[in-house]
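User: Can you predict the 3D structure for this chain?
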Amino acid sequence: MQVILDVSRLLACSRRPTPSGIDRVELAYTRRWIEAPANSCAFVAQDLRGGFALLPRDLVAELAQALTAAWTGGADAAAAARHAGAVALGARGRLLLGRGRGALGRLLDNGRRTAFLLVSHRALERQAPIEAMRRAGAAFVPLIHDIIPVTHPEYARPGQAEKHRRRMASTGAMADGVIVNSEATAQALRPWLRQQAVPVLVAPLGIDVAPEPPPAGPGGEGHPYFVMLGTIEPRKNHLLLLHLWRNMAAARSAGQPAPRLVIVGKRGWENENVVDILERCVALDGIVREAGQLPDREVTALLRGARALLFPSFAEGYGLPLAEALALGVPAVCSDLPALREVGGAVPDYLDPLDGAAWRDAVQDYAAPRGPRRAAQLDRLRHWRAPGWQEHFALVDGLLARVTTPAAQLAPYAAPRRAAHVAVRDAAVS
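Assistant: Here is the predicted structure, written as structure tokens:
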């Protein structure tokens, strides 16, 4: 069996100072198949015509190495970022010149069983290029990260809901198998799948912990502090915490000290109220800091020193910040959402994202030197196990073997459970 992996998103995001969750996933998939035997995987990207073209393996390996160094941080991060941009520019130049289309055709014509992986949502709404790959004999397997723009269009950018509907329609019409990151995503996806049985693999995403950061991480300055990690957008519910901290600032003026809050992430869309508070609320001066986008080393340093990660989101498909915090041994207080319960199990404190009083009580307890709720979570955290990429790809390999083997398509698909929150099953939608 051979795998063809679309790396178009890596080319597009090569100049980003920090990656999104989807960027991380495509990079993890790229690194995994770069390490596999050369004849087992090839890499493609979308050309200007909207189709796919083959990219040289060594070019993709160079890009993956540079992006890993740039996004991790460290002394060579700036140079690595420049190098990643240059490599991506060279790859886009090849696509502009039309190189790689013929090579891809020859690869697909070699008679080998082939799986075409698209793990980023990028251009998933364009059915024609994907259908061309399927007509050439490749089984199509996308990774769906969430259905949030469809189920919660009020949190999406203008036009994103309709675009995501087309993506889900493409998945339902063409997917020979689907990878999802959680059972919550699988449940939301099932109405979109076509009538015949389509195997759906629930495979939690692996966690990459950055190298040990410098001893003195930024942000706390000797005071207890909390971290909120994610793009500043309405779905993440920054307003809840900002109003809470403003109230605590008023209490501070009456003699009660307030902990700090560090907000990590880029500014997204439709966040005018949040930005106004961050930029103009003098009551938050000195106790709330907008750190912006930070490399992985600095985020790791911040999390390790925090009293807890705060994650009051209204909707999630997986919850990567939660998994990252728990993997570092950092407690978390998060919204009571099915996807977050899949990630955190019994460890975090789960709260209603609209219950300001409950969040205030939790923050006050976790900020205290010997808060009982934080101590209890640290005890539970000792038994939590971080999901790993090796486990993820073992499950993915089983799905790819099924969708590329005609005999296997006739038998029920089963894979061993690797953890309580991992499930593999067929989705038959009537």
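The chain has two domains: 2-207+388-427, 225-381. The first helix runs from residue 8 to 12.
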